[in-house]
Amino acid sequence: MAAIQSAGRSDTVALQSGIRPFEIARDLRPVAELISDAFALELDERGAAALREMRMMSRMGGLLGVMSMAGSDFNDFFGGYVWVEEGKVVGNITVQRADKHGTRWQIANVAIAKPYRGRGLSRRLMEQAIRHVREQGGRWAVLQVYAENTVARTLYDHMGFESLGGMVELKAARAVHVGPLLEAGIETFAPNQWQSLYDLANSQLGAGAQWWRSLRRSDYEVTLEQQLVEWTWELLGRRRILRRCFRSGSRFDAAIVLEAQRWKGPHKLQMWVRPELYGQKEQPLIAWALHELAAYPAWPVTVSVSTDHQAALALLEQAGFNSVRTLLTLRLPISQ
How far apart are alpha carbons 158 and 142 in whole angstroms? Predict the structure, then answer.
């Protein structure tokens, strides 16, 4: 196998078999196809959108090569390695700086083409990624994996990764009532109160879970343009977004957002509860949401809940929700 060159170098040795740094100009398209094949059943809306962007960018060809030589920030975002067999990319791993100080690095897109699985290529790529993090002075490597992916989890366990928790995706075939409808204390909150919701979400996720990736304010901020879109869809009878909360003064103790659809499902739920109030606020919020959905088409209902939020998980299971998959976050300390 040819010697590994530093990422972003234009003089990378052309090798026929083995690991070499990812080169965006020539590798982006085959890597996009590799990821599409490897994660066809795992990509969510955001992942599918990212894949489409990769395919679009791959058409930029030479321009990407010029951009890759422009600075380290570009290569940090697109950095990684590929495994080549007979000149063809059959494996990939992405290694990205996860904070501005380079203390934490994210490993992602560990993908091997089907004919080459079971040969230890994933481990070799992981070892190279960890070596890269160490050489860059990183202290931690972080990755996410679905709990149901036993092959990948076994590899990461053997390599010493530890769990930071995760999110469980649940789905019900249709909305059914769960317990009595107790609306006392439940209040409506407006889209422009997103900062209180953002504060609540931060309190629930906690410092440990946000150790490597803080919540993005943009995921909670509802701009005037977004409010206009909400109003338009509601006026057209396509969908309605309903917001309810329990509050102590201006502070939200718990909240739920229901996206109820009329034209096309599924309906979507999001719920947050301060950890010290787990087991006290979930039942009335879930009951309210499922009661509201009785007025809408009987489409499936989806929700994501933290693995630590056992009270919510138990109530949702009682209401007919089943776990679809669990996304775990793992980390590995990097010895220097």
Answer: 15
**What is the DSSP code (8-state) at residue 231?**
H
In tens, the pLDDT along 134-166 reads 999 999 999 999 999 999 999 999 999 999 889
Please check whether residue 5 is in contact with residue 11, taking contact to mean a CB–CB distance below 8 angstroms.
yes
Nearest to 24 by CA among 81, 72, 73, 71: 81
Distance CA 300, CA 99 (A): 38
Structure tokens belonging to residue 119: 């040969």
pTM over 0.70: yes
Q: Looking up tokens 């530890």, which residue turns up? A: 162
How far CA 243 is from CA of 247, 254, 255, in Å, comes to: 13, 11, 7
- Using CA atoms, how far apart are residues 155 and 171, in angstroms rounded to an integer? 29
Q: Which helix (H) or strand (E) holds 229?
A: helix 224-236
Q: Identify the CA nearest to 92 among candidates 24, 147, 1, 158.
A: 24
Terminal C-alpha separation, the chain: 26
| Distant-in-sequence, close-in-space partners of 39: CB < 8 Å, separation ≥ 6 | 47, 111
Q: What is the pLDDT of residues 250-295, one digit of tens each?
A: 899 999 999 999 999 899 999 999 999 999 999 999 999 999 999 9
Helices 282-292/310-318 angle, 10° precision: 40
Q: Which amino acid is at 7?
A: A
